[in-house]
Amino acid sequence: MAHSARLFFQIELRCVFFVLAAVSALSTSSLTAVHTVPLGGSIQDTIAAANPGDTVRVSSGTFTGTVSINKSLHLIGAGASSTTIEAPADFAANSAYDRPLSGFVTERPIVYAGSTFVISVLIDSLTIDGVRGGPSFAAGGSQVVAYSGILADRCSLTVRYNVIKNVLPADSSTSTWHSGKLYNGRGINVRGDSSVAVISNNTLEHINRFHIRVSATDDTLVSVPTVFPYATVTNNTIVGKGVYNGGQKGVWFNNGAWGTIQGNTISELDYTDPALEPDRSTGIIIWIGTLNPSHRSIIAFNNISSSTSINNKGIYVWGVRDTVSDNTVSGYRYGIESHESFSTAILRNVVTGGLMGILLGQETQVARVDTITIGGAPENKNTVTGQASGFEVIGGVEKPNGYAISLCFRDPLGDPFFSTVPVNAAYNDFGVSTFDSIGVRVFDRADTTMSPVLDTVVGTPFYTPKLRASVKVYLQGPYNTIVSADSMFKNMNVDPGGALQSHFTTVAIPSLAVDSINVELRNAESAASSTIRKFAPAWLMTDGTIRNFTDETKSYVEFDTTIAGSYYLVVRHRNHLAVMDSLPQNIDGSTSPAVYDFTTAQNKAYGTNPMVLMGTKYSMFAGDADANAGVGASDLVSVLGAVGLVVYTVNDMDMNGGVGASDLVLTQANVGQISQLP
Fold first, then answer.
1. How far is it, in rounded angstroms, from Cα 625 to Cα 603?
2. 8 A C-beta contact, residue 101 and residue 145
């Protein structure tokens, strides 16, 4: 046995040595070198001398010339504010900088990363400045090459914390659009078979056309890739050239490219040519994502703004099962457009201004069974407000705009036709609260001209704001009896470890909250036969006002129903007798509803003497510990059994955080009182 143990130990020890030796060899073989480029040195020569996997660090300063990376490498500057690579003086004219690749137009980059096989490249903490040195336009001429700040082909690419700017043609100082010429500058351009890119936390400004472009191909008929490029584009800041006829694009996934576009800020893509075609500025585009139906793109939490809405779009999607959610789009002629898309979901976006908030477009009269979802449920509602009336010419006829949602299908010639695409556009907030006003905010081509049997919209009604009510009550227990005080004590809410804080551990408690309370909405056929429709939890404040439970800045409660009308309001508290208003109130979605004040008179509450007079104000009776709608012997027994407790409890009638003699006195005084609720 001892010999076996020694043998096992020796074998185990040899295994440990073998593993350590293997780890040591692996560590030695995977070591990479760091090369530093001093000011005045050559970035290109340093890259040429580096081995695959090495890091090239570029010192502070300005380095003029183009850079080419044909191996896996990290290219890192001293910071975008410190290290600049700028286009050479002959950038516009020297074709030696061109990169002609199969399936793409020729491109002239400042920084190029690519090879015949997939390489892994990091570009970090640099400024890449085109110094407005792009190819210029002679009179009557046209641009023959595209040009870019960063061009990557067949790469596993990470681009982060860089500034890419001034990638503009030499004659772009004016806003004149040269008809028929190809303005084709790019900030970051990722293209080609199998490319995977992470583009994050960069700033791109004053780019002639495409700020960030991920492209499967330039020609879908010739060179559709075997493996479509995928990109994650997050937290970048894109600033356009401002008022400019150049049809700028923020983030463009081209011809089947796919991935995630999230958390980006895009502004000043302000196109001024009123002609609808052939071009317009657009914040985010998924272009012909239908080339590979198994891929989907996610566009979320982006902030896209424009200061003009003459002819531009915030988000344009042409794909399969794409999701457009939680974006803020403001000022664009068309806020969000789903074009020729399949099963697109447009959820929880805020779209303001422009002429159309959310637009569906289609150019082929093909029967479809997939559903486009716009909102579709209260929790997914889009908020679409502020679209101004205007006109556009379709088929030679002026058509009105100014809609929150437009379901208008047309062919390329502008002739309208009817589509079989089903649309679930239920539950969206257009800033209006009646069905008539909602109808004015929606243009449904099918609704207006064809049989309801073929209607393209399913799942109505559209969402309207929740019903809201403002109420004021006092509770007898915590009421401040000092003359003219007109307030309640908040003793349970005084200390951080007080009874209120110990009970409500998962929500924020307003500093002036006395306790939680419930407000109930009852149908108003008659007081005697009123039935509960909805109820809402809320906070009761020291001045008697009732605040929204999840947002104390709202001086009203919200009921999860959309049908405005006449209702009774009931206020319930855990150990005070409930009250109901004596007459039904008009309740709607107003954000400033009139306050119903129970405290001013006995007849403000339904029933006979339903409240107790405290000084000059009326309050709800205390003492209902067992919640049976009356005060009696069982309540006295309950309070007596709890004397001495310091805790959040129904037996604490004066709501000072503990149970004592004062709670017994309050309960005893109200024995025989009952709630007057029908």
1. 25
2. no
CA 348 to chain centre: 7
3-state secondary structure of 633: helix
Measured distance CA(385)–CA(373) in Å, rounded: 19
The strand pairing partners of 317, in sequence order, are: 286, 338
Residue with tokens 């495409």: 210
| Cross-strand partners of 329 | 304, 351
Amino acid, single-letter form, for residue 120? S
Token digits of residue 622: 């205390």
- Which helix (H) or strand (E) is 22 found in, with range? helix 2-29
Among 330, 345, 365, give the residue marking a domain's end.
Answer: 365
In a domain, 440, yes or no: no
Q: Are 491 and 658 in contact (CB under 8 A)?
A: no
Can you give the CATH number for the domain in which 73 is found?
A: 2.160.20
Mark whether 354 and 473 lie in a shared domain. no
- Of 573, 572, 577, 575, the C-alpha closest to 638 is 575
Beta strands in 72-145 (DSSP E): 73-77, 83-86, 107-124, 127-129
> Alpha carbon of 203 to those of 127, 184, 305: distances in Å?
9, 19, 16
* pLDDT value at residue 481: 87
Number of domains in the chain: 2
**Structure tokens, 605:** 């509450």
Handedness of CA 37, 40, 41, 43 (dihedral sign): positive
In a domain, 322, yes or no: yes
The parent domain of residue 648 ranges over 467-669
Strand locations in 502-660 (E): 513-523, 532-541, 546-548, 557-559, 565-572, 579-580, 585-587, 595-597, 612-614, 617-619
Residue 441 has a pLDDT of 81
> Is the pTM above the cut of 0.90?
no
Q: What is the dihedral of CA 218, 411, 308, 208, to 10 degrees?
A: 10
Token couple for 367: 């029967």
pLDDT at 445: 55
The reply to whether 18 falls in a domain is no
Residue identified by tokens 């400024």 is 127
Q: Work out the number of other CB atoms within 10 angstroms of the CB of residue 436.
A: 7
Structure tokens at 533: 């429709």
CA dist 340 and 335 (Å) reads: 17
Q: Read out DSSP for 356-403?
A: EEEEEE----------EEES-SGGG--EEE-PPP-EEEETTEEEE--E
- Angle subtended by helix axes 633-642 and 661-669, to nearest 10: 180
DSSP calls for 424-436: E--S-B-S--SHH
User: How many Å apart are CA 59 and CA 129, to the nearest integer?
Assistant: 16
Residue 260 lies in a domain: yes
Q: Describe the strand order of the beta sheet including 83-86 as a list of residue ranges.
A: 61-64, 83-86, 127-129, 163-167, 203-207, 237-243, 265-270, 303-305, 328-330, 350-352, 383-385
- End position of a domain, from candidates 326, 348, 365: 365
* Dihedrals phi, psi of 352, to nearest 5 degrees: -125, 145
Measured CA to CA, the distance from residue 349 to residue 359 in angstroms comes to: 13
Q: Which portions of the chain are predicted below pLDDT 50?
A: 1-30, 139-140, 172-181, 410-414, 447-455
